[in-house]
Specification:
By secondary structure, the chain is of the alpha/beta class. The protein contains 8 helices and 7 strands, in the order ααβαβαββαβααβαβ. The protein has a 7-stranded mixed β-sheet, with helices on both faces. Helix 4 links the parallel strand 2 and strand 3. The protein binds S-adenosylmethionine. S-adenosylmethionine (SAM) binds next to helix 1, helix 2 and helix 3.
């Protein structure tokens, strides 16, 4: 697996409209978490794997004078983020990779990421980079739907066609701690809208039947909250 392969996969998502489905599916959970991140005036944030930038545009205006930069390996995702940009969000977008962040040390107050970090080619290097660019006392808030306690997500690497980390909740905590974060906590966040409406359920490769949909909802999104020691 290479960054070029990841970029090609997600360039296609950007072209075929798949990127826009991410906000519909994950907007509720992301808004819950952003509401609990204690974003304060003037804070600068980094969104790892920003896709079309919808969450970056929520982070920017979360407090007076706050701002967010999203990075993504897919040039077409970054182009889509720029097309969708509304110029009031204090957000911007750059092409870049998790494993070699093009930012100085101690720059950001917060690192955020939604449904992206398990694609890292080198997860430990990605976590070390996230730690490096955070200010001492800064926090990482990483959200992922693919983890071992949500067993229906195991097949996603095959359906998407790229390699993905498949870790248990405790292993995610261990990997963040090994990178130097402390303390590290996890919790599950459930979509407050519930699993949806069975009468309107439409199967897809990720979710072939209603029972799977119900169980995916019940497993929720894993929120990893980790601090860079002072
Ligand atoms: C499933 S999408 C999620 C996008 C966005 N966070 C959202 O919620 O809509 C994962 C994104 O991570 C990016 N990505 C995957 N591996 C990456 C890496 N190693 N470095 C930078 N971006 C990466 C992909 O290009 C893709 O846009």
């Amino acid at each position: 697996m290479t960054h070029e392969r990841i970029a090609a996969t997600f360039d296609e998502w950007a072209r075929n409209g798949h990127a826009e489905g991410m906000e519909a599916g994950h907007g509720d959970v992301v808004r819950q978490v952003i509401g609990r991140m204690r974003i304060q005036a003037g804070m600068q944030m980094l969104d790892l794997g920003c896709g079309n930038g919808w969450a970056t545009r929520l982070l920017g205006p979360a407090a007076p004078g706050a701002g967010a930069v999203g990075i993504d390996a897919s040039p077409q995702m970054v182009a889509r983020a720029e097309e969708l940009h509304d110029w009031t969000s204090r957000a911007r977008y750059e092409v870049g990779t998790f494993e070699a962040l093009d930012f100085p040390a101690d720059k950001f107050d917060k690192v955020f990421s939604m449904e992206a970090l398990y694609y890292a080619l080198d997860l430990d290097q990605a976590l070390r980079e996230a730690l490096r660019v955070l200010k001492p006392g800064g926090t990482a808030d990483v959200l992922i739907d693919r983890f071992q306690e949500s067993p229906h997500t195991e097949s996603w690497a095959r359906t998407v066609g790229v390699e993905m980390a498949w870790l248990a909740e405790s292993e995610w905590r261990d990997r963040f701690r090994a990178a130097g974060f402390s303390p590290v906590t996890t919790e599950r966040v459930l979509d407050s809208r519930g699993p949806g409406d069975e009468a309107r359920f439409e199967p897809d490769v990720h979710c072939p039947d209603w029972q799977t949909r119900v169980e995916l909802h019940a497993a929720g999104t894993l929120w990893i909250h980790a601090e860079k020691p002072e």
